Amino acid sequence: MPLVGGGGAGNTAGSNPAGTGTTLNYIGDHAYAMSGGIDVPQTITTLLNFSTSNTYVVAEFTFGNSSGSGDDMEYEVSIDSQKVLSVAVSGANAMPPNKPVILLPPYSNVLVTGFNLSSNTPREVFAVIAGRAYNA
After folding, report:
1. Nearest-angstrom CA–CA distance, 112 and 38
2. Terminus of the chain with fewer CB atoms < 10 Å: N or C?
3. CB 21 within 8 A of CB 112
4. How far is Cα 47 from Cα 63, in angstroms, rounded to an integer?
5. What is the pLDDT of residue 66?
């Protein structure tokens, strides 16, 4: 297995050792996705977009607005083109008060988007998923 950065552990996640991007990553029986900071204007913007494998994943979702702008944001999760979660966060709170948990079925397509409800000025937001994968 190739090494990243000239030493250390093998890179099991491919060419992205930090793990940010739009895909779901697996480590043993755990799964995670981290969008990294993405600028979101008043347009539906993809934060994460992936397909699950032959496992189902029980995942906790975290959303945040790191811009400090005070803009209201909306985050949505769709599974196989069906909206399953919509969270609106007021500008006074950078993150929702709770972290929703969703079961992601095997072989499903998951899309997480963000939308700036207050301004067309792009604001940096993020989405993070952390969970456990189970054999179907």
Report:
1. 12
2. N
3. no
4. 10
5. 82
Q: Note whether 136 and 106 are within 8 A (CB).
A: yes
Give pLDDT tens digits for 27-53.
999 999 999 999 999 999 999 999 999
- Note the pLDDT tens digit of each residue in 83-98: 999 999 887 666 666 7
Task: Judge contact between 38 and 118, C-beta under 8 A.
Answer: no
DSSP assignment of the chain equals -PBSTTSSSB-TTSS-TT-BSSS-EEETTEEEEE---EEE-SS-EEEEEEE--SEEEEEEEEEEE-S-S---EEEEEEETTEEEEEEEE-TT-SS-SS--EEEE-TT-EEEEEEEESS-SS-EEEEEEEEEEEEE-
Tell me how far apart the alpha carbons of residues 132 and 101 are, in angstroms, rounded to a whole number.
Answer: 11
Length of the chain: 136
